[in-house]
Write a sequence for this structure.
């Protein structure tokens, strides 16, 4: 009996599932998988309950409920000055994860080369493999994790058809700057490439830095599919309401695959995310300010304990180098840590082709209440230096 396909060969179990299971088995503080430990706004939950109680329980239209598509269009205009027709240029998906999968399946042929920033979000690799694509990683390297423009240019070949971007970037916390985005845009235009831009952390930037969607750069709105999700911006990661916005041909190609993956995404939560997207500026400002406090608490504490800390510009995640503690291998470290001190973190190395570049790096999530971060730091002070 054949029990699995070549399409999934070698993909294994995601590190997030492995580490969250380890957290519950050991009763550890889970600074691994990136999900907040507090819910988003209660009035948004009320809106979801209202929808459940008022007949929003049958299939949504394939591209999503009209009020959410309209709210996404309004959001893109309000924050970035981007104009999209909600009828044909926006589609709702089951999380950003489905948008990424459907976009790659709908736009990439077997043998096409796709440039991807590494460390990469693990679903990119899995779906590129399932699509039969060849990935061409460009590595963001410690300590700065900036985009190496020469390496990016060198990664383009005659078979390249797309660049899969992620900014703010998980796991490094890099927020791509205007000059980096300009360089990507130049390459995309020169080689006639599609850009698929994963911007799920668009509202999670710190120190006054702002996220720039690459679709806003000259010549890019016609070749960029922008992907985001309500999970991170509103602390509802379990709702899995995502979306894609872009020119009609790209959105329709994504929908061409999406219609046969899930057909349509869950109806009752969509009106609630529509309402959330219309939140006033104070919501977004307060949310980021609180997250920045948590970032500083975690980064300051990890540095005090003796880690070399790379302070992130955005996202939920901080990265440390574990070598000051005498460890070389982040995967071994993260598998040992829960039993040793009761804390879970995520090793970078599983997100690289160039495993050596990520081997000593470990990612810690700070989307947790300050007392939880403090408890994790307290436990980590028990970590002794291994020489
Ligand atoms: N992209 C990145 C970079 C992420 O970190 C995540 C985290 N969940 C996702 C996509 C998936 O988003 P969603 O939960 O909306 O599917
Ligand atoms: N995006 C989150 C992270 O990077 C959750 C990932 C997941 O569970 N697939 O931790």
């Amino acid at each position: 009996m054949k029990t699995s396909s070549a399409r999934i060969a070698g993909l294994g179990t995601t590190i997030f599932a492995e580490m969250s299971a380890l957290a519950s088995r050991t009763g550890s503080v889970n600074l691994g998988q990136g999900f907040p430990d507090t819910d988003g706004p209660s009035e948004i939950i009320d809106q979801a309950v209202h929808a459940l109680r008022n007949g929003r329980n049958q299939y949504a239209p394939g591209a999503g409920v009209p009020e959410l598509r309209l709210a996404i269009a309004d959001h893109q205009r309000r924050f970035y000055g981007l104009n999209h027709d909600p009828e044909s240029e926006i589609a709702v998906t089951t999380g950003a994860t489905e948008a990424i999968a459907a976009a790659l399946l709908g736009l990439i042929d077997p043998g096409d080369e796709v440039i991807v920033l590494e460390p990469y979000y693990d679903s990119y690799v899995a779906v590129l493999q399932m699509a039969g694509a060849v990935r061409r990683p460009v590595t963001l390297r410690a300590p700065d994790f900036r985009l190496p423009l020469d390496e990016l240019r060198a990664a383009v070949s005659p078979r390249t058809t797309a660049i899969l971007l992620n900014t703010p970037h998980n796991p490094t916390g890099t927020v791509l700057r205007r000059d980096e985005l300009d360089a990507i845009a130049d390459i995309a235009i020169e080689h006639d490439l599609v850009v698929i831009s994963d911007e799920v952390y668009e509202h999670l930037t710190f120190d006054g830095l702002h996220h720039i969607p690459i679709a806003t750069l000259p010549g890019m709105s016609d070749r960029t599919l922008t992907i985001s999700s309500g999970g991170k911006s509103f602390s509802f990661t379990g709702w899995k309401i995502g979306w894609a916005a872009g020119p009609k041909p790209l959105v329709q190609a994504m929908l061409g695959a999406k219609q046969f993956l899930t057909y349509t995404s869950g109806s009752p939560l969509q009106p609630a995310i529509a309402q959330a997207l219309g939140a006033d500026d104070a919501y977004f400002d307060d949310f980021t300010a609180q997250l920045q406090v948590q970032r500083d608490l975690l980064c300051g504490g990890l540095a005090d304990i003796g880690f070399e800390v790379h302070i992130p510009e955005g996202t939920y995640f901080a990265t440390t180098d574990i070598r000051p503690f005498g460890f070389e291998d982040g995967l071994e470290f993260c598998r040992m840590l829960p039993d040793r001190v009761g804390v879970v973190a995520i090793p970078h190395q599983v997100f690289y082709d160039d495993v050596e570049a990520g081997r000593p790096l470990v990612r810690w999530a700070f989307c947790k209440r300050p007392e939880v971060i403090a408890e994790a730091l307290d436990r980590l002070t028990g970590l002794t230096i291994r020489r």
